[in-house]
Amino acid sequence: MEEGESAKTADRTQLKLLLEFCRKNKGRVQFVVVYNVTRFSRESAQHHAIRALLTGFGVTLRSVTEPIDDSPTG
């Protein structure tokens, strides 16, 4: 949990640590699970950029409260 850091920016301490962990453990981490996508990222462009980065690490984003469409049209 990021105390006092907004999902409006990708410059968040815990998000950076999560992405670094996924990079270092490429092939060993399969999923990142968030409670709600808006808690992950609120800006569409940043959301897609972070998801693309995770995908490059072989990681799939999942939400506890909502479906995420991983299809090309989703």
What does this structure look like?
This protein is an alpha+beta fold and 74 residues long. It has a domain of 46 residues. It is 39% helix and 11% strand. The protein is built from 3 helices and 2 strands. Strands 1-2 form a two-stranded parallel sheet. The radius of gyration is 12 Å and the shape is globular. About 7% of the residues have low confidence.
How many beta-strand elements?
2
Q: How would you classify the helix and strand content by structural class?
A: alpha+beta
Low-confidence regions: 4-8
Query: Strand-and-helix sequence, N→C?
Result: HEHHE
The N- to C-terminal Cα distance equals 27 Å
Residue fraction in strands: 5-15%
The spatial strand order of the largest sheet comes to 1-2
Overall pLDDT metric: 83
Shape designation: globular
Oligomer: single chain
The percent of residues in helical segments reads 25-40%
How is the biggest beta sheet arranged?
Answer: 2 strands, parallel
Number of helices: 3
- Rg of Cα set: 12 Å
Summarize the structure.
The protein has 74 residues and is of the alpha+beta class. It is built from 3 helices and 2 strands; from the N terminus they run H-E-H-H-E.
Annotate the secondary structure layout:
Elements lengths: L12 H12 L6 E4 L2 H4 L3 H13 L3 E4 L11
Parallel strand pairs: 1-2
Structural key phrases:
globular, 3 helices, alpha+beta
